[in-house]
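Data card: per-record layout.
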Amino acid sequence: MKFSTEELIEGIRSGNKRLIAKAITLVESKKAEHRAQAEELLKQIMPFTGNSARVGITGVPGAGKSTFIENFGRLVIANGKKVAVLAIDPSSSINKGSILGDKTRMEELAKEENAFIRPSPSSGFLGGVANTTFETMMICEAAGYDYILIETVGVGQSEVLVSDITDVFLFLKIIGGGDELQGIKRGIMEMVDVIFINKVDQDNLQKAKNTRLELKRALDFIPPKEKGWKIPVLLGSALYNEGLDEIYTQLNEFIDLKKKTGRFNEVRTQQAEKRFEYWVQEYILAMMKRSSSVEEAYVQHKKNASEMVSNPSTEAKIFVEKFLSKD
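The structure for this 327-residue chain is written out next.
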């Protein structure tokens, strides 16, 4: 059943999870007929957005992101808030499919009336997020969710882009992988605001403390992201709800600090500008390819690049200048 823009907006504002999901599906669609309605929907809900705490969560595979989000989400709800989880699953590079298993891994949170979980495929989009994660977040904000938790596909150099759409970036770490700092990219360390060493128990407590000390030393060599904020490195176990209260406190303290210094609105403005630049590129390419002659040229230059007839960047430059330099 196709829903009108007005029906979707009414459903979003009333917290109807089915219609919220329908609206997100609409925004994720790449079909031209859906894009027009999606743009109108996003335009009309804008006055109701911007009131949430946007939290990016990343970590190595096996760090316990899903368990952390489930129990942290329940803690948020226990504090009288509503939480939306946007879980980004990696898409296959072969068939573009995605497992989308996070909803099944967060069974208890999914039962909560004040929780909404939306798994989305990354669809090959780099940065640890999907290309419409920002717009999906707008829908959740308009629906009245106080906390938006964005779980990235996993830690790596590309995942730092999640910081471009969130207010606070949480990095989950585990111990026992040999050199504790090996594999942690500088880019990640420059972006994080809070670090949580997960899966800590009595058997590995001393190792966890040593890891915390190493991380703190490493952070001393990185310029602070926000003045007046020293990145906390916390220990705990998401499975047993240990350390989650402290995480909740630290995340809120960081956001409060940004608001007091004026950085909160400044950063959100910069993030919106980056989204504008991203969509400008997407729409320019889409409009250019509507012309059959441009499409033919695009295919040819792409072929030249793929067959290494010339450098891919050179082919891209020639293609763009050929059409955008015309009156």
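Known properties of this structure: The two ends are 44 Å apart (CA to CA). The chain is about 50% helix and 10% strand.

See the next section for split statistics.
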